[in-house]
Design the sequence.
């Protein structure tokens, strides 16, 4: 679990418990386009509030964040990850303002959809298993959700889902990633706030067991291990070092006595 993914999940869960204890608080957290200028803070707070009538809403969003978030945060760095997350959520509120003016919006879906789009842009052919059974490549899954959200939003679906917030999340994430690409080029994945991982901490790289790594991270681990096998540990980028350090077991040898 990466730092911001952990913080976001904790924050969402805490707000959910507050909703259970004080149901009226939702009126101050939800984003209502009609009252956007009267309650401007809701453009951010809405993405931490979820349907208090059940667990499915918050569970789906937090599970998706847990699955996709760590890999994205490790790839682009913590500062860029939280920026991506918040901009996606804010973009979802903006889309709701222009295309669903009479609807109230709650949930992290817009922000989480933005993270999902980033995952599909970095690893388009990664297979995502729907319901744990049906394999769908990441790019196709984003396309399917885009079509569903467009159709449902434009036809005025009454399913209670903020489809335009989802689309806004996609657009916000896409524009931010393109901005990074245009302004930082090949350095876009290097986190300035992350301390470099020393080569000594990766000496046990041969003991990394890809089979014990979650399937979401397994392909990236295998790719980095193959790179080390061909070019050595020193060939890794700072972000690759940081990512691999999460899976390298500690050195259990007895240190020499001085």
Sequence:
């Amino acid at each position: 679990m990466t730092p911001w993914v952990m913080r976001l999940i904790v924050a969402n869960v805490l707000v959910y418990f507050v909703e259970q204890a004080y149901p009226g608080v939702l009126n101050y957290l939800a984003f209502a386009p009609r009252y956007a200028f009267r309650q401007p803070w809701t453009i951010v707070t809405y993405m931490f509030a979820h349907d208090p009538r059940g667990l499915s809403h918050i569970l789906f969003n937090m599970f998706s964040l847990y699955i996709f978030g760590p890999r994205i945060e490790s790839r682009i760095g913590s500062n860029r990850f939280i920026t991506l997350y918040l901009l996606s959520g804010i973009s979802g509120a903006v889309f709701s303002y222009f295309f669903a003016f009479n609807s109230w919006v709650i949930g992290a879906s817009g922000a989480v959809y933005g993270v999902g789009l980033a995952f599909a842009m970095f690893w388009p052919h990664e297979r995502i298993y729907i319901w744990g059974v049906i394999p769908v490549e990441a790019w196709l899954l984003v396309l399917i959700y885009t079509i569903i959200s467009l159709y449902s939003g434009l036809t005025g679906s009454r399913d209670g889902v903020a489809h335009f917030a989802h689309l806004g999340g996609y657009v916000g994430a896409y524009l931010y990633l393109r901005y990074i690409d245009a302004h930082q080029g090949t350095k876009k994945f290097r986190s300035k706030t992350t301390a470099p991982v020393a080569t000594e901490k990766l000496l046990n790289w041969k003991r990394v067991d890809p089979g014990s790594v979650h399937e979401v991270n397994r392909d990236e681990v295998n790719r980095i291990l193959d790179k080390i096998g061909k070019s050595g540990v020193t060939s890794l980028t700072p972000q690759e070092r940081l990512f691999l350090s999460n899976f390298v077991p500690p050195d259990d040898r007895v240190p020499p006595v001085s």
User: Anything to note?
Assistant: The radius of gyration is 20 Å.
